[in-house]
Amino acid sequence: MGSHNVEPSTSIMNPLDPEEFRRQAHLVVDFLADYYSSIENYPVCSQVQPGYLTKTMPKSPPMQPESIETILQDVQKHIIPGITHWQSPGFFGYFQSNGSTGNFLGEMLLTGFNTVGIMNPLDPEEFRRQAHLVVDFLADYYSSIENYPVCSQVQPGYLTKTMPKSPPMQPESIETILQDVQKHIIPGITHWQSPGFFGYFQSNGSTGNFLGEMLLTGFNTVGFNWLASPAATELEMVVMEWILKLLQLPKSFSFSSNGGGVIHGSTCESFVCTLIAAREKKLSQIGTQGDLTQGRLVVYCSDQTHFSLQKACKVVGINPSNIRVVSTTKSTNFELSPHALLMTIKSDVKAGLIPLYLCLTIGTTPTTAVDPLGTLCDVAKQFNMWVHVDAAYAGSACICPEFRHFLDGVEGASSFSFNPHKWFLTSLDCCCLWVKDSNDLTNALSTDPELLKNKQSESKQVVDYKDWQIALSRRFRAMKLWMVIRSYGVSGLQEHIRKHVKLAKDFEALLRTNSKFEVMVPRNFAMVCFRVSPSALATLANESSNEKVNRLNEQLLEALNGTGRVFMTHTVIEGVYVIRVAIGATLTDDKHISMLWDIVQEHANTLLAKYECLK
Q1: Which residue ranges does UniProt annotate as crossing the membrane (predicted)?
Q2: For domain 267-418, is the CATH number 3.40.640.10?
């Protein structure tokens, strides 16, 4: 498998086409049912040697999509031999990670959105029958997703009042369960995959991702070390190297150097791990006097940095008073100022504090601001600080050459992360973290209990990902990322990004044609921040105070979301209430932007007319 096969299957322009989803998912259901039927034919513990997969996989990701048939052939040929079969009846090694048809169906439902015999919850043929029903249920859901209000209209407590107070004593059929999903669960879902969803940075869905989730759930391996499932470890190394190349990250972040990459569940998890690594490294450098020294450590960020950093600091034991939130301004597009950072650090050093960690952002949540990496890394270098670059949202865009310049200067960082589960056609949860020196991470997080000792780990020839994260257990997340990259190819992923950027550019242009609206910050990627302008209100009400303008825009957002056709959120920047339109749903296209524009104009005009009546 030294090179890729070019066999397009899924339309690049519609990675969530319901009928293609249905066709491919049925193939994967049959693949997994056949796997369960023959699981006793495989050695329980994989017999492969370290490096078997990293030597076999192509060194670069495919440029063009590959068919599900080709991918499943490679799963059979290359992945399954490297799996330790946790679902095998001969697996007695660790406390079990049970699989069941019911669990698999639940995973299918949460990812997308007659009964199982009690004595055999993983009967292959019953698995096949029920899984096909759920595939059709989800394909029908995607076909009709625009019929549902984007944001759920239910009231708090709606489900707790409806559900039975006790669990069922006897099994229930999948048909009955799916009826309840349709009747009770779907009304309470905010439909993140709806083409009218513009509220938060997207959690993209795609057929390729769903099929990967099916496979990783079906195999249900727990790859905490290499031996526990060699394929899980080595495929993760492969896809992390692929994406490193796509982003043109420095070689220092590669496994071929002292660095490497790991897939976490979230940015917050990556914050926690890198903060611990930075803390332990700093304390080993300067010596420790317990809480006295740790109490002097300071973390720096901007007022645009995601709030999960402050939560991570609490977990790691950073004194809340030692978190420096440096103010940004509209005049610099809310970028972190190198001068302001330098002055803040110098003041802390003068006070006897110890600069520890700087978090920079590519595409902030409120405005998609981009911090200037090069100059800020230069500031941090003066004080021997750990620099983490959070590109959770916009990192995906940087696989396109026209956006790669936003990462200029990343070579000065100690770690870098982005979330494929935002804009990379990959579902929750999936956060890619690279570190420049993997020893910093493993020295801080490694454990070596007797139960997990084995000759492969002791040889130091393998990666044990348990030492790159907080938890011991871990999902086979690399499977879905590998499936996405192969299903759409680099060109398809780039086309996906560019489509949303164009839609955002089109919506921004529409706003600029109407003087009633004001675009509040430069559009860097696929999010537009706007409001009804003060001039529109002043003309009618002889009053344009910031408070009144804010209230008008708050009312506008409430009216827009109340239609059920769209969902947006807001932010407040320098005291100004701003409506955020985050374009990124897989199914969103031109007609949905036209619909959004019509709704925005209609409800803005209605509100302004009310103010005219009050004049």
Answers
A1: none
A2: yes
pTM of the model: 0.90
The CATH superfamily assigned to 492-614 is Aspartate Aminotransferase, domain 1 (3.90.1150.10)
Looking at residue 558, its pLDDT comes to 97
pLDDT in tens, 483-524: 999 999 999 999 999 999 999 999 999 999 999 999 999 999
Three-class secondary structure of residue 323 per DSSP: strand
pLDDT reading at 150 higher than 80:
yes
Distance CA(366)–CA(307), nearest Å, equals: 11
Q: Which of 557, 509, 597 is nearest to 549 (CA)?
A: 557
Collect all residues with Cβ–Cβ distance below 8 Å to 288 and sequence separation of at least 6: 294
Classify domain 18-218+484-488 at the CATH topology level.
Answer: dopa decarboxylase, N-terminal domain (1.20.1340)
**How far is it, in rounded angstroms, from Cα 223 to Cα 220?**
9
Domain extent listing, the chain: 18-218+484-488, 267-418, 492-614
Q: In what order do the strands lie in the sheet with 527-532?
A: 517-519, 527-532, 576-582, 569-573
Task: Say if CB 439 and CB 413 are below 8 A apart.
Answer: no
595 closest CA partner among 518, 503, 501, 520: 503
Helical (H) or strand (E) element with 455:
helix 455-458
Q: Tell me the torsion sign for CA atoms 79, 256, 466, 435.
A: negative
